[in-house]
Every structure is written in structure tokens, then in C-alpha cells.
Amino acid sequence: MLRAPMISTLLISFGLVAQTPAPTGPVRLSLQEAIKTSLENNLQVQVAVETKDYTKAGVLISQGAFDWTLNGNASYGYSKSTFENKRFSPVLPPSSGDSKTDSKNLSLGIVKPFEWGGTFSMTYNPTLSIHNHQYHWRDAFQFCHNHALHRNPECQLHPISA
To answer: Where in the chain are the domains?
Structure first.
């Protein structure tokens, strides 16, 4: 079998490398080499480097709270109802019929919080509603901003007319 001699050869060769004797006399280092070696092996320096990287990542995460946000929503609704009115009046006959409502909504918006506590937002919200074959279109744009000192945001609704 070829594997057994190969494995034992590898183990012996790694053992020989591991058993290389350390230098017995004093090691000559220049001042620069000694400083470099001590800094590479100093645990406090390694911790300081990791803490610096961790702090930088925390700053980036904190700044992410003030990024622009894009929001969107789409919805569709349909309803159909049948009605029947039975009147017990000799003058008015009974009536029956169908009622259908079809609505489509879309909402798009952006929001930007600021470091000083204010927020800026804009929303576009068109709506199409069809009720018994009658079309109703509403198109609106909303702009809001608030300041940290004000409790309620100031919003302005601007209907867009064609």
C-alpha cells in the first residue's frame, strides 16, 4: 500500500521541521527590528487597532439613520354587490341592481431625516376609482417638513389638476 509510507514520511518531515533548534546565543537585532517585533507582538496595540476599526464602523452605522428613504405602495380593490329593495307600496315598484367598485392606488414617497432633528418628506399619491362605470381620478402631491422644536409637522397637500 502506498499511503502508509507516504503518511509516515510526511509526519517525520513535519516533526523534523518542528524540532529545529532555537538559536542558543544572543540574537542580534537592530533598534528598528526590536521595535517592530515588540509592536507586532504587543496585545494592547492589537486591541487598539481593532477598537479603531470598530469605532469607524459604529460611526457609519449611526450616519445611516440619516440616509434618504424611498417608500412605495400599490393596492387594488374590487367589490361587487347586488341589492334588492322590496317595497310594500302600491305607488313605487320594487327595485334591484348591481353595484361595482374598482379602485387602484399608488403611493410613492421619499423621506430625509436631518441631524438637527428635522425631517423632510414628499409623497405622490394618484388614485383611480371606477364606480358603476363612472371614473374618478385624484392626483395629489404632499410635501411635509418639521423641525425638532415643533411637535406637529407642517404639511401642504397640493392637488394636481390637468
So the answer is: 69-159
Tell me what the pLDDT averaged over the chain comes to: 76
DSSP symbols for 92-140: SPPEEEEEEEEEEEEEEEEEEE-TTS-EEEEEE--EEEEETTEEEEE-E
Give the span between the Cα atoms of 84 and 134, in whole angstroms.
Answer: 22
Cα distance between residue 31 and residue 41, in whole Å: 16
Cβ proximity of 138 and 127 under 8 Å = yes
**H or E segment and range at residue 15:** helix 3-18
pLDDT above 60: residue 113? yes
Please report which confidence band the pLDDT of residue 65 belongs to, taking 50, 70 and 90 as the band edges: confident
Q: Which grid coordinates belong to 117?
A: 432633528
